[in-house]
Design a protein that fits this description.
Shape: globular
Domain Gfo/Idh/MocA-like oxidoreductase N-terminal: 8-131
Protein name: Gfo/Idh/MocA-like oxidoreductase N-terminal domain-containing protein
Pfam families: GFO_IDH_MocA
Structural class: alpha/beta
GO molecular function: nucleotide binding; oxidoreductase activity
Radius of gyration: 21 Å
Number of strands: 16
Number of helices: 11
InterPro entries: Gfo/Idh/MocA-like_OxRdtase_N (IPR000683), NAD(P)-bd_dom_sf (IPR036291)
Oligomer: single chain
Amino acid sequence: MTTAQRILNVGVIGCGEVAQVIHIPTLGFMSSWFRITYLCDVSPASLAHCKAKIPNLDLKTTRDAAELCSSKDVDVVMVINSDEYHVEHALLALQNDKHVLVEKPLALTKRDIHAVIEAERKSKGKLMVGYMRRYAAPLEDAIKEIGGMDKILYARVRDIIGPNSYFVDQSGTFPGKFIDFSPEDSADKTSRAEALVKTAFDEIGGVPVTPESTRLWRIFGGLGSHDLSVMREALGMPEKVVGSALGFPFWKYVIISPFVSRGAGMMLTLNLFSVLFQYPGFTVSYESGIDNIPRFDAHLEVYSANKVVRVQYDTPYVKGLPVTMHIAENADGVYKESTIRKSYEDPYTLELKKLWKVVVEGEPVKTTAEDALKDTELFGMIMKHGFGSA
């Protein structure tokens, strides 16, 4: 970094929890790279709360995403609002030749991802999907270690975490939760969600639209896209799904879903599911879910006869917790275990450094819209297996 480097003006669409806990603070820390010039949200209270935390006297606010995307004061648009609006606002940004960072999931349907790909082709802007775990410091080194294995025998992808509120409340960012949405905005969000899920299931074929299947699709787009995206980068796409236990009681494949206490008068449904992917010569088990235990167990672990490589993630909501690589191996008949902590820089900071290089230095984008399309294909494979076997 040099003192004369270009500072990018950023317009943020969405002032909810992830903006307040992650993106706005990180952009503020990186003031030699980025300057927030515009905020957009349909909640006036959220706008006011976030504006008060940003030291820019010229900061503008609006509820109109088109106004932000067309502003000459914006170089990069960050689309970090509710999933139902990701594509609409990414398209607005690209049509105005802005660069875009859109939080995952990019979209809930293949149709919409193809629309984004076409819009980017016509735009001067570049689009990057916010798969922040793929920018974690040790991931590339882990992939090299995995690539050096004689033969992969088995791999595991796990993401079983406690309630986000536990981590958010200790993040030191003191986010506000606001519900001052108009009835029209709430109704629009609901109708969009219903239409998008119907389109997605029509694309898959054979998956009924139910509250349970809809919820699972949204979980895949949220928590699941982190894990499956990392799995794809490390191991590629699987050939097929050979087993699934999707955790809802109306399916044949069931993981028991009891109710567990969350304290005085509060209950939380435990939702866990697992999937078995077939790769050439080995299988990968994918375990995910949310329970009431305040811990964050997220990792990719790959096994060969003489070495095991694991990339361990911690909660991204508490800054400075490192992502680590762990290697257990047979070293000439001796058990050897190594822990590599390459950096304390969090994946979100590394992701934004990459975004700056994409925009300013013309570096290629790793997490593209075409890349995100693969996750949607994986979600469909899982859903079709679970419902087709019912």
